[in-house]
Amino acid sequence: MIGRLNHVAIVVPDLDGAAEIYRETLGAHVSEPVALPLHGVTTVFVELLNTKIELLHPLGEDSPIALFLERNPSGGMHHVCYEVDDIHAARDRLVTEGARVLGDGEPRRGAHDKPVLFLHPKDFCGTLVELEQV
What we know:
Elements: E1 5-11, H1 15-25, E2 29-30, E3 34-36, E4 41-47, E5 52-58, H2 66-71, E6 76-84, H3 87-96, E7 108-109, E8 115-119, E9 128-133
Parallel strand pairs: 1-5, 6-9
Antiparallel strand pairs: 1-6, 2-4, 3-4, 4-5, 7-8, 8-9
């Protein structure tokens, strides 16, 4: 059902500093920051040959990752994103198998302007999973 790894998301306390580390120290291509008010984050993508790293920083007081950053002031891995061909079929199959979809269960537009869903970390070995339709 899942396809390739689309990205690994890392919450960072300093988005510009983190982007500079990937750009200058590691020599990676780093996108410009993009504010995603619907998700409460500002995001930067680090392009790799086989996948991406998504750097996340809270946007606004109601950001869902603000609490994560409070608990982990240095930041850390937040979620992994896998590609799926049909997000509704994937959701329906996962729900039938007992997985919990976060939010209202309906896909929302993600950072790549494609439908995404998040799956409860307790159902996936303690890891928050994002599915993105490609």
